Fold this protein.
Amino acid sequence: MSTAAKQQGGPRKVRWTVPAVDTSVIAWLDAQENISQSVRLLIREAIQRDGYIDVVYKPVEQLPRRDRSQDAGPVDARPVGDPVPDRPEQHEEPASAPAGVSKEPAPPVQVSVDEIMASTRR
């Protein structure tokens, strides 16, 4: 910000970019009648709740786990952010290799970038 804007109390202009893949933020922005006022109100709420902090480094407080024994919904119907329940690991016996075939992995083969690019053009 220029020194003149600080001294005169002029408005501070801020420019930011939202990645195209962040569709929820884009949808929220599209729903706002006045983006500038909406963002300022969100900032004021954050200041009131958390003070003047850098929210990027704000610690996340995890909610306590709820009892799922009474949940009548399907297994995958859980709110966003809930941890995935632990599943017992399934161990499969490795198939024995045919005679004369080594179980050792093959050593890595060095390939040039030109060969890789040529293979994508086929």
Notes: The helical segments are 3-8, 23-31, 35-50, 113-120. Residues 44 and 51 are 9 Å apart (CA to CA).
